[in-house]
Amino acid sequence: MKTMKDTVIQLTLPTPYAVGDVHSYLLKGDRLTLVDAGVKTEAAWEMLVHQLDDYGYTPEDIEQVVLTHHHPDHMGLVEILPNINSVAAHRKLRPWIERDETFFTRYELFFHEMYVEAGVPEKYFTILNSLKKPLKWIAKGSLDIELEEGDTIPGHEEWVTVETPGHAQSHISFYRKADGAFIGGDHLLAHISSNPLLEPAFCEDEERPRPLLQYRASMEKLLDMKIGIVYPGHGKTFEGAHALICSRLKKQEERAQKVLNMFGDKSLSAYDVCKQLFPKHIETQFGLTMSETMGQLDYLEHQRKLLYYYEGKRKLYYVNR
Q1: What CA–CA distance (Å, rounded) separates 109 from 49?
Q2: Distance CA 265, CA 286 (A)
Q3: Residue 291: Cβ within 10 Å count
Q4: Going residue by residue through the chain (321 aa), what tens digit of pLDDT does each one get?
Q5: What is the pTM for the complete model shown?
Q6: What gap in Å lies between CA 55 and CA 127, rounded to an integer?
Q7: Cα 109–115–121 angle (5° rounding)?
Q8: For residues 37 and 15, what is the distance between their CA atoms, to the nearest angstrom?
Q9: Domains in the chain, ordered, with CATH?
Q10: Alpha carbon 248 to chain centroid distance?
Q11: Are 65 and 148 in contact (CB under 8 A)?
């Protein structure tokens, strides 16, 4: 087997989130690069320092950070690292790290309009007030290098960028063809299926993304690649990515059929479906459950199994017979 130029070191950092620990990966090649940077907490920083020391490094040795996506448990420590000369990520991560207030205003407006269209009761609109809350865990800085499909990581020419939107619009992964190694962020996890999360369009004049459709396409793209070991953002490293992808696609299709069966001869709003699909979690995880629900409806609409009409501003779906 060909000798790999880069050494991959997994670092595991705590988070305050239910998902638990998050992984960062140290790439030792022409430069020392950290792929993903944990959450911005003292506990995560202390663990990063400790684990770097185990391998003979300090935070000062890290020259570059590469980010798989903009979620707070993956980019928090960027601004604390003292000697990095570049941050590389997808261009859609830029408004998050650079705190584009115009984008965030549009972000809040998007969810307000979407909840109205989905028939969400007024009591849930207070959630919109906390949309910016995760920003306290996200690093503030600049995006120095934009990575897109086919680009290599600077200083690590073995690793090629694969655009994998779905879980996040900014999501990218990295593939090493020589041995099939795949640094996947939250795109593919062994123990849980990642949530395709709703976001507004990156540009104001575009239609909103359909994250579940994107996520399916991003997974299907990997079926054309020889994937070896997967280095995920959470959970254990694993092999057998193709079998896992096929299983995830099938389960998603089964859930979509479950949603379709809810309709009968009725018309339902997205909120109506969400209540039936997630009766135990809608109150405590409203944002996540609505994202999942909208994903199922997008998929069924894309398959032409559901049609819709508007009753005022509310969008109602019905079965295409």
Answers
A1: 40
A2: 27
A3: 18
A4: 456 777 899 999 999 988 899 999 999 988 999 999 999 999 999 999 999 999 999 999 999 999 999 999 999 999 999 999 999 999 999 999 999 989 988 988 999 999 999 999 988 888 877 777 777 778 889 999 999 999 999 999 999 999 999 999 999 999 999 999 999 999 999 999 999 999 999 988 899 999 999 999 999 999 999 999 999 999 999 999 999 999 999 999 999 999 999 999 999 999 999 999 999 999 889 989 999 999 999 999 999 999 999 999 999 999 998
A5: 0.95
A6: 43
A7: 130
A8: 11
A9: 101-133+250-319 (1.10.10)
A10: 16
A11: no
Unique residue bearing structure tokens 């109205």: 116
By the 8 A CB rule, do 44 and 13 touch? yes
User: Which neighbouring-strand residues pair with 32?
Assistant: 28
